Amino acid sequence: MIYKQRSMPKKLIGQYALIQRLPPEHGELQKIREHHKNNEAGFSGERDFDKQMLEFKPKYPHAILHDICLKQDGVFFQMDSILITPASIIIFEVKNFGGKIVVKSNPTQFILEYSTGERKVMRSPITELDRKIFFLLEWLKQRKISIPIDGIVSLAFTNELNMEKPPETKVIFTYETPNFLRTLQINKEILGRNEIKKLALELKRNHQEYNPFPMTKTMNIPCTHILSGVICPSCNHRGMHWAKKKWNCRKCGHTGTQNHINALADWTYLIEDKITNKEFRNFTQLQSHHVAKRLLAKSNLTLRGKGSGSYYVKNHET
Predict the structure, then answer these.
(1) Collapsing DSSP states into helix, strand and coil, what is residue 164?
(2) The NERD domain covers which part of the protein (predicted)?
(3) In this structure, which of 111, 125, 152, 301 has its CB flanked by the most CB atoms within 10 Å?
């Protein structure tokens, strides 16, 4: 049973907002684009893993949780996916690299070879797994739970894999994962059905998602570098104008009444988790104070404070 689904990482959302709202000549833009591309590929690989795991339906009780981040001894550790069985827990490290992967032994090294002939030594996913296994064992120990933990490196099927000598940690392609898990032998039941459920819910309850918002603060980018304007969802032109009770795109002619919602989201991702009427007008390039007040009131926001000190926040944050 799946107890936690995967959602798009906030970092990926924030990076996209930055790409949309930084000047083309900005010094950090190219680096942000590269990071966004890599993170997007990683998320795509993880979603493919989730899809493959839907085929795994064992007869014994189990729990699957995707994207779990816990804190142990002041240290955060994130697990791409975990499987809880009656006999053990498996942590999956999902990787989606573009190119050929060469795994060398003594010591174990993961080397990425590009089609251009360029070679790059990657951070070993096996080392990452060992770290996560250690912290999860400690996390479980505090809860008086003792159960073996194994790790599996799952690679995107598009990779070419060349291993000099298979490492002790299992390295497989994502599409092989369900078949491999079907071969697992449950020889000793350590956790019963109710205990598995209880542990899965405890893991989910303790999950702490990394929050990089606002991105300007996280990445030390001045707020003044962020470009204002409502972005057209049709042609991506920034600078829709409000007229006749709707947003209008001068470039492609697209119109809509809710296009400021995405601008408000960008403000939250990039600038701050609250906004004043004046800030909203400046960011959306809107002239009328009364129109801004009406749009903000209909945008799932709550007004706090009075007079010049008032501001708006999302309803779920009140």
Answers:
(1) coil
(2) 41-159
(3) 125
pLDDT digits (tens), the chain, 318 positions: 999 999 999 999 999 999 999 999 999 999 999 999 999 999 999 999 999 999 999 999 999 999 999 999 999 999 999 999 999 999 999 999 877 888 888 888 899 888 788 888 888 999 999 999 999 999 999 999 999 999 999 998 777 888 888 888 999 999 999 999 999 999 899 999 999 999 999 999 999 989 999 999 999 999 999 999 999 999 999 999 999 999 999 999 999 999 999 999 999 999 999 999 999 999 999 999 999 999 999 998 999 998 888 999 987 543
According to DSSP, the residues that pair with 163 across neighbouring strands are 103
CA angle in degrees (0–180, nearest 5) for 282-283-286: 55
- Residue 95 · residue 129 · CB < 8 Å: no
Domains of the chain: 2-206 (no CATH), 228-317 (1.10.10.10)
**Where does residue 150 rank: exposed (0-12), middle (13-18), buried (19+ CB within 10 A)?**
middle
Query: pTM for this one?
Result: 0.89
